[in-house]
Amino acid sequence: LYRNSGSPADDDILGRIQWSAEDDAGNDATFARINVVATDVSNDSEDARMEFAPAVADDFTPTMSLSGGKVGIGTTSPDSPLHVDKSFAGTLVTIHNTAGSTSNDRGLDVETSTTGTTVQRWLNAGSELARINGSGQLLVGTTSVNGVNGTTIGSSGNITLNTSTTSNGEYITFRINGTQVGSITSSNGNATAYNGSSDYRL
Question: Which among 7, 106, 138, 158 is least surrounded, fewest beta carbons within 10 Å?
Fold first, then answer.
């Protein structure tokens, strides 16, 4: 496909492949499109975006886009090599390995280089909830191992609980079938108490 334009401009549609057929009322209908858009027509720095748009309720918002060496699902402006971005009522991403019969049958491997400081992060509404850092530590409610608040589980199994609360509060609660049977609490930020229903204490 070749588009001969006397005034090429950014965001021009260069070409379209379209699949059409009759609907159940005998009308000609379009069922899918592939568009190519010139996002930058500057000489020697041309860029393009390829859009895959199967019909969804007769709408052709692209389901997947290829742009700048990145794949966007639900977005035409991906910020990372694989960017999934969509308002969806339910699970946004499902990874299902139907084998799963051996220790090598995994659903997902996430790997960074040895110089990476953060392997995975979990965020909600832009705020970080937890991360796994490059040292194999799980940080919940904090971005630093020595943070004021949050919990850190080290790669050797040690657990660190940090809080900025100076009043009385619970660090750990023990429950059986939903009923609390013990706790570890702090008193005025400078003492620790071990509480339980047993006659034995630490």
Answer: 7
With bands split at pLDDT 50, 70 and 90, how would you rate the model's confidence at 6?
Answer: very high
Q: Which amino acid is at 90?
A: G
Q: In angstroms, rounded to a whole number, what is the distance separating the alpha carbons of residues 76 and 125?
A: 21
Contact 37, 51 (CB under 8 A): yes
Angle, CA of 68, 10 and 48, to the nearest 5°: 25
Residue 85 burial by CB count (10 A; 0-12/13-18/19+): exposed, middle or buried? Answer: middle
Kindly provide the b/e burial profile for residues 38-67, where b requires at least 16 CB atoms within 10 angstroms of the residue's own CB. Answer: beebeeeeeeebebebeeeeeebebbbbbb
Nearest Cα to Cα of residue 174 among 197, 151, 145: 197
The DSSP annotation for 11-63 comes to TEEEEEEEEEEE-TTS-EEEEEEEEEEEEE--TT--EEEEEEEE-BTTB---S
pTM of the predicted model as reported, rounded to 2 decimal places:
0.74
Which tens digits make up the pLDDT trace of 27-60?
Answer: 999 999 999 999 999 999 999 999 999 999 999 9
The residue type of 55 is: A
The tokens describing 121, both together, are 């992060």
Give me Rg for the CA atoms of the chain.
Answer: 27
